[in-house]
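Entry 14. Ran structure prediction on the chain below.
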Amino acid sequence: MQWIKKDMELYVGSKEYIDTAIIPILPFQMSQEGNLSKSTSKREILSIFATEIENELSGRLLLIPNYYYLEYGDKVEEMERLNKWTKEIQAQPFKHVFVLTFDSGWKRYEKDMSANLLWLPGFQAENPNSDELRQMIRGQVSDVVELIRSYW
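Output, structure tokens:
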């Protein structure tokens, strides 16, 4: 289920079956214009990943809206803020909350996070909507889905 009206209405009526949430987290920065293309490409690719995971686990998983943080900001502050998001989500109640990111810097804070970290090695693509990229994503999504299922 995604964060759209139709899915939220369905969620409210069947929330006892939906026990897993994913929060995609994405860096944001405007100060280094040379990196804007790379940064936006990663956002698009992570969005595709999250949507593919949601499609695979439809009916059991809710895809939370993206969480943005300053790329060069204080990760400790961001982790505390992200933990507040996680606690809000867990109170609904969600038994399993995952944070999805390409940013390996979050691995350093994983033990202090209230959610399970799903770090994916990032990669670049000229066209985030290419068939080749989508095939590669689908291959990796099956591995991530199996990892999520191992928590159930």
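The chain has a mean pLDDT of 86. Will compare against last week's run tomorrow.
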